[in-house]
Amino acid sequence: xxxxPLDFKKVFESIWRIEKAxxxxxxxxxxxxQVVNIILTELGxxxxxxxxxxxxxxxxxxxTLKRIAIxxxxxxxxxxxxxxxxxxxxIIPLWATQNLSVRAINEKKRFVSENVSEVLVPAVDREWVDxxxxxxxxxxxxxxxxxxxERALGTLIFSLSKEEYKIxxxxxxxxxxxxxxxxxxxxxxxxxxxxxDSAEKVKQANQRLEELDNLKDEFLSLAxxxxxxxxxxxKDYVSEILNDKDANITEDTRQKLEKVYSASQRLIALVNDNxxxxxxxxxxxxFNVSDFDISQLAVEVxxxxxxxxxxxxxxxxxxxxxxxxxxxxxxxxxxxxxxxxNAIKFTPDNGTIEVSFVSKDKLLETTxxxxxxxxxxxxxxxxxxKFGRIHGEEGMxxxxxxxxxxxxxxxxxxxxxxxVKVESEAGKGSKFIFSLPFSPQ
Length: 441
Ligand SMILES: Nc1ncnc2c1ncn2[C@@H]1O[C@H](COP(=O)(O)OP(=O)(O)O)[C@@H](O)[C@H]1O
Ligand SMILES: [Mg+2]
Hints:
Layout: H1 8-24, H2 28-44, E1 50-59, E2 64-70, H3 74-82, E3 91-93, H4 100-107, E4 111-113, H5 117-120, H6 126-136, E5 140-148, E6 151-160, H7 169-243, H8 251-282, E7 289-293, H9 294-304, H10 306-311, E8 315-318, E9 324-328, H11 329-345, E10 352-360, E11 363-370, H12 405-415, E12 420-425, E13 429-437
The protein binds adenosine-5'-diphosphate and magnesium ion.
């Protein structure tokens, strides 16, 4: 058969097709298979007797060359059927310097041989290959190193049914450009594969983290339940002793018991907050909605807190009126209790706290404002997050708390159809504002 004259435009197009195939194929192995077939098809037009193309890839960790793709040709099929060792198991160790692929990698240049066995030793028995070569009619094997960014990635092996001297100069230059294109394409594909692999790893790690997070939540909720009963017993007995006028205890013991009492109270509050949070996060918290006057509720909460603010000589003003909202009263009590308690905690002696109401776009806005320490702009992000505390940290006077109140309040308000926000200036006080739906009438 007379070789068709070389057409550089066609070669250029072929190279472009190789690049495209690799870039468009997400699966790396699939991409390499396509590469060898494209090369073969593209080479077909010069009728130059290219029978089998094999792509091997360097495994730098194992120090081996692995065959990862073979052309879809008749002789290739015959070889695959007859080979005593499965194609994927034809692994060439890098110490086998008699193998032409190893030499091509080491010396970064192409090798040509009349013997197919030289590309298969030591994985496949030399004698078997020598015998089989005649059946296939292979006369020449060319081994090219695939090089990208000066690194050898693997080899391309061309097996031809013609002698080496019949390969024209032009043909060599086509092969050179093909192999160059495969280098670039393979490099891209490998990069893409490693990115994909990392993405998969990150995904798996995330899944595991999520599982652990759920497990932790479950544990916390279980532990909280178990803690609540004994803590309540401690608290109740201590309270009983403290309230017993006839109790025969010294002043020193009384002070210690008072500390035990408030510590147990704090612990119970922490446990309760935790339980509420796990309930609300898992979506199992029930909301018993009714219509009630929130200003009246604020008055009740103020009375509940009277011990605390009178100790600090603070004034707490509630704007009383007919401010009927539609929500779960007990949960809103919790929100008010936390916001007003915070206002008292973070406001110095003699300060003022105000609770006021205003209607805004079908919602009623409640504002708890104080003349306290305020919040710096850079600390705003720490509010409303679990265990988020700004004050009572290092270098600050200790303020009791868990850092769960605002987080829980925000979730309660949002589940009730409202929203929360805060306005504050350091040293000038804060305003915590939340909205709730009006009652229907
Ligand atoms: N009215 C306020 N003025 C200044 N800082 C506040 C106020 N309310 C809350 N904060 C800040 O937000 C943090 C979180 O509040 P919260 O979730 O209720 O937790 P806790 O009251 O247990 O500390 C507080 O520790 C405090 O630093
Ligand atoms: Mg609080």
